[in-house]
Write a structure and sequence with these properties.
8-stranded antiparallel β-sheet; 19 helices; alpha+beta; 29 strands; 594 residues
Length: 594
């Protein structure tokens, strides 16, 4: 795959605001104030931060030369999309998709190279674009490109990113032929210097924030909600810099795990609900590493220390080492359960739990609550493998590779003129006739979204000679869209929202079908069950989308295409109906719909 790259070097003579106070760790204990309050009709006047910070200081020696870039990517204005609701999913790739992965490294002379390797370990979280920003001699230097990490970066490009601090990002998106301008990390200049940011998640009040910023004179160049964060930081009058981040985050609603880079500091922040993962580790030379998953730490030989806690800001600097503060009093954590079901690699530890052990337990539960007479257990690779191992072990039936996945299928391919049925699935999955022929087969998959791929897989296995095909799904039925950084179809497209289990079984053509029971999932999680978000299974949202339409992926729209945004492939889905909010935001819309 050819990669399109963008290389920029931005410098600033401005210094960042004065260094952080040496007072001790700080938590804001004002329960009446919450990060997720409704945003006012006009932007509040930025003011100095009203709380007294107390720091937890961990002293470490770092030698860092830093410099700051100024980006002029705030150049063009765009209108928001209104009525484009085109499906984003391919029939042959019917899975939820994690939007992206982030990495931050401080205090290593090969920061950009380590960042490159860590992004490679996080490639499963985003395959459409990658970028790295490094600091050298007070300049933030940025390279971003379209394609896989290995497509975007080579020895020549990495040599252009010297320095001991770096942040990186891998991104997933489906819209548009070119999306280079939306590839993160973003770098922006403001009056005190420059800042780079990489963001994993989705802001559910993005449109309201953007409209208000535009009303106050802000100009946007991308459709990414991450750009909103940069604008909020720029207009804040809080000092020092990390308090600008706190000030900006007070206005955000939704999911965000972010890493920021300035000329002399690395900052990691996680939203108060902790929807998306973010972990901290340390290399043997003392370098601090932040990443979306622990698998990235493993590859660069960093030792996992802990998660970045929900609502926490971690500031890393040469002078004061690692400082921790509480962003805001945070409610009960609501961490994304799909990290354990599908997104994360099995060798990662996410939210303090082994992903491998979780998936193995899901399979064991399925074998207990939905047993069936069978001869062999197979998985839909790769995400169904561990659950299938758990099912086979509990059922006492051999696990075998009945489907072989090709890892070399690109986004486009040439189909012969004589149409081949289920061509897309056949390109990716090949049945092993010797395993399947004449057998009663249990097929374990992690989830069913629209059901289109499942029906093709069942047909593929039966065409290979299987006598019976029994589908076992290692998650509860998905009945609702995600608004917190996962690319899912609208609720109307979700098969479990439209059909009963019996109807789905008939639709996909299997001999029996069973999902992981929701109560069994919560029982397996035991005391931790209240700390997870189950909105996609229940339709109950920890943070209600407060807009008429909500972006399902933070930077899904207008990927570098020319023309008005309402002509772009739809990255908007309708939010849950809230009459009061609709009246507040758009009275004419409300009148037209009732």
């Amino acid at each position: 795959m050819a990669a399109s790259a963008n290389i920029s070097t931005l410098s600033s003579s401005s210094a960042l605001s004065k260094p952080m106070s040496k007072s001790p760790s700080f938590c804001l204990n004002q329960p009446q104030k919450t990060l997720f309050s409704l945003f006012p009709k006009t932007l509040p006047k930025p003011s100095s931060f009203p709380f007294k910070p107390v720091f937890h200081r961990q002293k470490h020696q770092f030698i860092v030369s830093s410099k700051n870039p100024i980006s002029d990517f705030f150049t063009t204005n765009e209108t928001d999309p209104e009525e484009s609701f085109l499906p984003s999913f391919s029939d042959d790739d019917d899975k939820p998709r994690e939007e992206c992965g982030v990495v931050g490294i401080f205090g290593d002379p090969e920061a950009s190279r380590l960042c490159y390797l860590a992004l490679h370990a996080l490639q499963h979280r985003g395959q459409e674009g990658a970028g790295i920003v490094a600091v050298n001699n007070n300049v933030l230097q940025s390279i971003t490109g379209v394609g896989l990490v290995s497509d975007v970066f080579n020895e020549s490009k990495l040599s252009q990113l010297p320095g001991e601090m770096a942040i990186g990002h891998v991104r997933y998106s489906t819209a548009g032929s070119s999306m280079l301008k939306n590839v993160q990390p973003f770098v922006a200049g403001y009056r005190f210097g420059s800042v780079g940011v990489a963001h994993n998640g989705n802001l559910v009040n993005y449109r309201a924030l953007r409209h208000m910023l535009e009303d106050n004179g802000s100009i946007f160049n991308t459709s990414s909600d991450t750009e909103v964060v940069l604008h909020l930081i720029a207009i804040s009058k809080a000092r020092p810099f990390f308090l600008r981040i706190v000030d900006a985050c007070e206005k955000l609603e939704g999911a965000y795990s972010m890493v920021f880079l300035t000329e002399d500091k690395l900052v990691a922040v996680r939203d108060p609900h902790g929807f998306r993962p973010l972990v901290m580790g340390r290399r043997s030379n003392g370098a601090v590493v932040f990443a979306s998953e622990t698998c990235a730490l493993d590859l660069i030989e960093a030792t996992y220390e802990r998660e970045v806690n929900p609502g926490e800001v971690l500031v890393v600097g040469k002078k004061d080492g690692v400082q921790s503060l509480c962003l805001l009093p945070h409610p009960e954590p609501k961490q994304c359960i799909f990290e354990h079901i599908y997104f994360a690699l099995p060798n990662s530890v996410v939210f303090g739990r082994s992903v491998y052990e979780s998936r193995h337990a899901f399979g064991e539960i399925l074998a207990t609550v939905a047993p069936v007479d069978c001869d062999v257990v197979i998985a839909v690779p790769d995400s169904g493998v561990v659950a299938a191992l758990g099912y086979a072990a509990k059922a006492g039936v051999p696990f075998q590779q009945g489907l072989i996945r090709s890892h070399y299928v690109g986004r486009t391919f040439i189909e012969p003129s004589q149409k081949i049925r289920d061509f897309g699935v056949k390109l990716k999955l090949s049945p092993v006739r010797g395993v399947l022929e004449g057998k009663r087969v249990v097929v374990v998959d992690d989830s069913i979204v629209r059901g289109t791929t499942s029906s093709k897989i069942v047909r593929l296995i039966k065409e290979a000679g299987a006598k019976e095909v029994h589908m076992r799904i290692a998650s509860p039925p998905i009945i609702a869209s995600c608004y917190y950084g996962v690319d899912t179809p609208s609720s109307e497209e979700l098969i479990s929202n439209r059909m009963s289990v019996e109807e789905i079984q008939e639709f996909i053509g299997c001999d029996s079908l069973a999902f992981l029971p929701f109560d069994s999932l919560k029982n397996m999680l035991a005391a931790d069950s209240q700390t997870f978000c189950y909105a996609c299974f229940s339709g109950k949202y920890p943070v209600m989308p407060r807009e008429i339409k909500v972006k399902k992926v933070g930077d899904f729209l207008d990927d570098g295409l020319n023309g008005p945004m309402d002509s772009i492939d739809g990255g908007w889905v309708k939010g849950p109906r809230n009459i009061e909010i609709e009246k507040e935001i758009d009275p004419m819309y409300q009148q037209s719909k009732i």
